[in-house]
Design goal:
Helix content is about 35%, strand content about 20%. With about 280 residues, it is of the alpha/beta class. The chain folds into two domains: about 45 residues, no CATH class; about 220 residues, Vaccinia Virus protein VP39 (Rossmann fold), CATH 3.40.50.150. The strands form two sheets. The protein has a seven-stranded mixed β-sheet with strand order 5-4-3-6-7-9-8, with helices on both faces. A two-stranded antiparallel sheet has the order 1-2. α1 crosses α3, α5 packs across α6 and α10 runs parallel beside α11. The protein is elongated and about 70 Å long. The structure holds glutamine (GLN).
Length: about 280
């Protein structure tokens, strides 16, 4: 049915959905190929197929998605982790100093902070999200990947929960975020798989799509260690505008990095302590 309706990954989708309904891993699916399926199991599979046919992604239906080689549980309040975001994780893993501290803003499933911590056993992180439900997913994912003891989760908007006294030491070495960056008016035009199933709050970047970057640029410096920096994911056409926001907020050595598709995807901006800033 999926093939007939033009789903490009029909066979894979069918295998994943059937495996999920039957509670079988991909290996078990292969080794149980000839086992009969009960009527109630067939009904389960049909129900999942029905959801896929409305355009809901396989990841949302089975409640998890692979990111940076790790499985992440999703829920209605979290964005699906995207492969494009792996570039930001690569950079964070490479550039975080030894024993460094990371702050992940709008953590969602926790995919960025957790993937970094899983690959940097020396690091610790703090992550915030405005949605308590998203933080539940992040907590479960941190437990699952054995990094919960090194990840503090705080509910609130951007830096807000940290001002309330949760911040420790001399500031973070690295602030990372994949904030909502779609202009409100553009949301309606997105593919149905995104528009109808990803949470609006995780996508909507305000009238010009840049509202979260303003908050991060304006308030980020006061949260960073003297040699700290910021890594943010951006939309393919936001490189110049976001660089300008960070420059105006006093950041220096601002660079734009491309993803595997050759599109602008990450901005890296370095903190300059107020005393060292030059005019202009
Ligand atoms: N940080 C999470 C991710 O990269 C959530 C991002 C978001 O909700 N905008 O998937």
């Amino acid at each position: 049915m999926l093939t007939r309706l033009g789903f490009e990954t029909a066979a894979l989708d069918a295998k994943l959905l059937a495996g999920h309904a039957l509670g079988l891993s991909p290996v078990q699916m292969a080794t149980h190929e000839h086992s009969p399926v009960s009527d109630s199991d067939a009904g389960q599979i049909a129900a999942l197929l029905q959801r896929r046919l409305t355009g809901e992604s396989v990841a949302r239906i089975i409640g998890q998605r692979e990111f940076y080689g790790l499985g992440f549980a999703l829920n209605g309040a979290t964005l699906e982790p995207r492969p494009e975001t792996e570039l930001l994780v690569d950079m964070a893993i490479t550039w975080l100093p030894a024993g460094g501290t990371l702050l992940d803003l709008g953590t969602g499933t926790g995919c960025i902070a957790i993937a970094v911590l899983a690959n940097r056993p020396d690091a610790t992180a703090m992550a915030t999200d405005i949605s308590p439900q998203a933080l539940e997913a992040a907590h479960a994912n941190a437990e699952r990947h054995g990094v919960a003891a090194r990840l503090g989760l705080r509910q609130g908007s951007w830096f807000e929960p940290l001002r309330a006294g949760a911040r420790s030491g001399e500031g973070f070495d690295l602030i990372v975020s994949n904030p909502p960056y779609i202009a409100s008016a553009v949301l309606e035009t997105l593919a149905s798989e995104v528009r109808d199933f990803d949470p609006q709050l995780a996508l909507d970047g305000g009238p010009d799509g840049l509202a979260p970057y303003r908050v991060i640029a304006e308030q980020g410096a006061s949260m960073l260690a003297p040699s700290g920096s910021v890594l943010v994911e951006i939309g393919f056409d936001q490189g110049e505008a976001v660089s300008a926001l960070f420059a105006a907020a006093g950041f220096a050595r601002i660079s734009i990095h491309q993803d595997l598709g050759g599109l602008d995807r990450v901005i890296w901006a370095h903190h300059v302590p107020p005393g060292e800033r030059t005019a202009g």
